[in-house]
Amino acid sequence: MEKNNKMFTIGYLDEEEQWKLMFRNSLKSDFNIVLLDLPEKVSDIWQIVEKEKLDALIVDFRLFESGKVTYNGNDVVKDIRSHNLHLPMFVITSYEDNAIELCEDVFIVRGKDMLTDTQKISLFKKMLSRAINTYNHQIIEANETVLEINRKLEKGMSLSAEEEEKRFRAERFLAELNIPDSFDSNMLTSAYSSQLQSLIDAANKIVDSINSK
After folding, report:
1. Closest CA to 57 of 30, 21, 18, 84
2. What fold characterizes domain 2-134?
3. pTM
């Protein structure tokens, strides 16, 4: 539950102050908890995620009950994934059936009752920590792959088909961490222009698909 001897930073988005306090009290011993205010527009949340350097985002499902906003937890997840496809996220709710019916990713839905159940909150902490550690490991691994292959290219060595695919997958993953900025045709190299252009097209389809739902 730590990174470089520091606690992971978890953002929590909810319209009810009592649940905010309960969430913080339930997880503050293992994580650095940032209680977020509801922005007027769902599209503003990504900037908050970046500003707070969040390692994960937990969001209540029925945010609209406050009357302050019109979006819900699923809308938040969709918007974040139009920027970063891999950031660890969970939707928690007192209305699991409703959330499971309406959320596109049902595997990230959890009941709020876990915040009052010692065993459930202990399990959730482990899941959250595991999700973040896996995410960070994938970033490190992808960066190391790109650096390793680039060093080989700098030495004038050719790449095997397997190495070409490995680099392609690593670059795609890294690009998916910041879609609007990473998928820019100006970043294309002559050696990978066709592959990366395919990535751009694929990413644009993903973003369009997310935004149209």
Report:
1. 84
2. Rossmann fold (3.40.50)
3. 0.81
